[in-house]
């Protein structure tokens, strides 16, 4: 077990390179199953969720080779369905993508009930309903979800009650080699959906409209391998942007798509930070010299403000002058980290899906816990702007989605280190 120790109060400066997006890399890695061929995926973040995904692929017969720290070759010719062990599947949410990928290639699939960060109920009903609409029978067996379509899947029109990222990914995976035209309505519009479709189209798929709310998939007979570069991680980028706004200073982010950052940039500007972008160069600069002012954030599906960025904004709201609120519009229980901020002196209360922050407060360093991936990043940001020393435990959850967070912040001038507990 390790912990992160931060001595707060230092401004940040310099440049930071943003890694590839975890939530794009994961569906793309599972999508390689559909090709039965060799794919080379670049800009893959070497985070622990990716390691688990690659272990799952190996467990079902794929050959996986890291070519560089961020480029991985996956050959899925030898993959067989229904072999992934519960203990691996249950460590992450994205293992659910095995269902769509195995169903698409083999017409049968099995996955141990997916785990992942705990922010309330994380149902799979929309995934299951979609598979059923396409002709699969779905059941549970000793903790596994089993899906079978003995006569093959058929194309269908699927309406999603909620624009779920996971359900949209799974239905795309199931539909790309299913004969006929499948239409997903009220689909998720996140940039990682468009990136998955780009990858699959390079493999020979015919997917149109990814990134919009209606996706049309014309089933093709077979796919082939390809090379693909994963898009930059907008949540990692937003996390560094929030860190600069909290600690003060000026930082340039490299390898970032400014368009993906619109909602985060708008809120940072409202709070008094300066945000500029050079879209062609793929860079953004965030500076904050004046005191922060209060704002209101409501998380929503893309292009709304991302729920995966709300914990990182909480420390900013503690320090901002006035009353700020965060209304969580996606998950039922994403405020567990608030108690930790209170230990640091924050004035926060939670009522249902809304947290209210009364500021400004000068946070004080304290021992705190990283409850989940993004809440862990929030604790780091709180530590950067707090007076004194913050010690964060359970930091392994941060490794699920941030590559070298401590090293990158250290390079920006933070007094931060990771030590054995
Ligand atoms: C993905 C992200 C997660 C992010 C979330 C929302 C990955 C690996 N994880 O999670 O970090 O917080 O998108 O941007 O990419 N829902 C249902 N039934 C379903 C599926 C979802 O009711 O079958 C609901 C959920 O309870 C939630 C909402 O839909 O309220 C969004 O969930 P979804 O977009 O599916 O999130 P994930 O794909 O699990």
Search tags:
binds uridine-diphosphate-N-acetylglucosamine; alpha+beta; 2 domains; 13 helices; four-stranded mixed β-sheet; 421 residues; UDP-n-acetylglucosamine1-carboxyvinyl-transferase, Chain; 26% strand
Query: Proportion of β residues?
Result: 25-35%
Number of domain units: 2
**Small-molecule components bound:** uridine-diphosphate-N-acetylglucosamine
Largest sheet: 4 strands, mixed
CATH class of the largest domain: Alpha Beta
Helical region count?
A: 13
Segments where pLDDT lies below 50 for 5+ residues? none
| Average residue-wise pLDDT | 97
Give the full name of the CATH homologous superfamily of the largest domain: Enolpyruvate transferase domain
Structure overview:
The protein is of the alpha+beta class and 421 residues long. The protein has two domains: 2-18 and 232-420, UDP-n-acetylglucosamine1-carboxyvinyl-transferase, Chain; 22-229, UDP-n-acetylglucosamine1-carboxyvinyl-transferase, Chain (Alpha-beta prism), CATH 3.65.10. The chain contains 13 helices and 23 strands. The chain has helices spanning 22-31, 48-59, 86-89, 97-106, 125-133, 165-175, 191-202, 234-247, 262-270, 310-319, 338-343, 373-385, 405-411, and strands at residues 2-7, 12-17, 38-42, 63-66, 72-75, 108-112, 137-141, 144-148, 157-159, 181-185, 206-208, 214-218, 227-229, 249-254, 274-278, 283-288, 296-298, 322-327, 348-351, 354-359, 367-369, 389-393, 415-420. A four-stranded mixed beta sheet has the order 21-22-1-23. Helix 4 packs parallel to helix 6 (165-175), helix 5 packs parallel to helix 6 and helix 8 runs parallel beside helix 10 (310-319). The longest helix has 14 residues, at 234-247. The termini are close together. The mean pLDDT is 97. The structure holds uridine-diphosphate-N-acetylglucosamine.
